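Q: Predict the bound structure with heme C.
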Amino acid sequence: MRWVLGAALVSTLVGAVGTSRRAGAHDGQPAALMFSNAAGVLGTATADGRVDMSNAFFADLGTNGRTCFTCHRPAQAWTITPAEVRDRFDRTGGLDPIFRANDGSNCAAADLSTVESRRRSFSALLNRGVIRVELDVPMGAEFEIVDVDDPYRCGAPLTSASMYRRPLPTANLSFLSGVMWDGRASKAGRAIEDDLIAQALDATEGHAQGVPPLPAQLREIVRFELGLVTAQMRDHGAGNLGAAGARGGTAPLSRQSFCIGINDPLGMRPPVPGACLAPTTTFDPVVFTLFGAWQDSHSPERQAIARGEALFNTRRFVIDNVPGLNGAVGDPVFGPIQSGTCTICHDTPNAGNHSVAMPLNIGIAAASRRGSDMPLYTLRNLWTGEVVQTMDPGRAMVTGRWRDIGKFKGPILRALAARPPYFHDGSAATLEDVVAFYDTRFNLRLTESEKADLVAFLRAL
Ligand code: HEC
Ligand code: HEC
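A: Predicted complex:
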């Protein structure tokens, strides 16, 4: 129980206002909150070493009982897992504020009359931990939605789409280059901090069905979020992830510097506040430098993590047909990238997200991957008549552009073990599933032991 300083706090903190906890020391690494998970222990460090429960992040600012904390949980790396959602359903008979029809249920019109009807109405949230994001097709879009094969038969008009997406963590945000899976909270030329203020406003009006909070409250939320740093601290097999020369855990991460475009393979420097000032340096594929010291460790588990890190950084494969990168006319790269690595897209040092806002279509929302619980939209290009099917049009619902269909941002890769399932739609239940996806998608031909090493590394982040 030594590692679980935060568990008691959080089980009692629902509704608690004004309490806070001092930081606990963990193997020399200060973290304000610690939680056990399947892989070991997760930590969160805050800007001042405390968690201020009086922050507006935890306050009921809307009308449906929800707070930011309803869907963004420290034990789950500041997102929420289906296990937590199911537990909450069982404890409350499906009446916890996360179970609201505005975006928690499969359809906006949901039968909430009995426990069993609620279980059916919230099945996507219960099974995948996804929230319904409903957006209208933008004005002037290059496409129209001509059909939807909807497993839930919501009956929504074809002028909008319901997309089922995982909440993103509200931690490690100082590494962001774009806000939301489809970047819709980011505006060209606007600082990430201001994007986050706009996001907090939307979240209060949308998720919590509230009136706009005071500007001071929005700033307070964003200051809090920006101070949160979360990472796995301890691994059941490898022990303290910051020991024997390794640099896992929250303390090294909170010292990691970042500017937008920091290690971009294409040398992009978008004209936004927070972009790197220094002239373009050459791309370094060695993005993660946390576990190199464990290469010669006497512990097999530590060695596996070090080998996984090296695979992530340097394993070569061909990257082709990725719209946004090299899959379509007008993309920045012409033709296949012959010696690609995971880090071509996951290029931010020791955080792993895309260091520039560059939504990509790696095929997660493709019709061929469809599970029976996801809608399938048919989109028609108004100018060419071309037709495409997708589970989630992604960035295209923000820009209205045909070429943006199926594009999503490359997310931060820290604290993964605490927050399955993965990808924007929760379609990869485990990190093994993530690795299997990439093995097939990019024809990596990993051996079973290489897959295990890669998973061990991802689990230690
Ligand atoms: C009902 C659940 C729910 C509630 C309540 C909620 N969020 Fe979220 N949050 C989500 C989902 C789902 C996404 C991802 C949506 C997308 O990208 O399309 C998200 C994304 C975010 C992101 C984007 C992070 C990134 O990496 O881009 C931030 C920041 C965030 N939420 C902050 C907040 C704040 C602040 C509040 C309270 C005002 C809040 N959320 C309330 C579900 C929720
Ligand atoms: C061509 C760009 C690209 C390459 C190469 C790439 N990724 Fe990704 N990665 C992405 C994008 C984009 C997403 C988000 C996709 C989505 O959810 O729709 C993602 C998502 C992920 C996630 C899920 C994170 C989460 O929060 O759900 C993991 C884990 C991951 N990638 C690991 C890897 C590994 C391991 C490799 C190398 C084998 C790799 N990626 C190679 C672009 C890439």
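A: The longest helix spans residues 300-314.
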